[in-house]
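User: I'm new to structure prediction. If I give you an amino acid sequence, what do you actually give back? Let's try with this one:
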Amino acid sequence: MKIKHEVKNGILHLALEGDLLGESNGLEVINIVNNEINNNIILCAFDLSQVRYMNSSGIGVLITTLTKLRSKNGDVVLVKPNEQIQKLLTITKLNVIFQVVNDESEAINILNKK
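Assistant: Good question. You get back a string of structure tokens that encode the predicted 3D arrangement of the chain. For your 114 residues, that looks like this:
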């Protein structure tokens, strides 16, 4: 899995490509989030548009990220997950916990209101 990240205007933009299966990739994502929290970045736009598959460990990465950021009064918005991931979010009822949007500009608008 490829992970790209950058901070723009106080928002961590994480873009993942490939399969989100947890393991070492999940730890890398969590380390990025922890580093940015240490820099007082508590808002995250999580671009899932290029993620093909996600298992329970991948869901754990999303929940861990959300928990860490919300504990600092921050938030996470999921950007453009594919149909399979949207079904997974619905089945696990995580679509109620996470805000899911169709593009990055919508995510930025939501996060800027926090």
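You can read the tokens as a compact description of the fold. Here is one thing that stands out. The radius of gyration is 13 Å.
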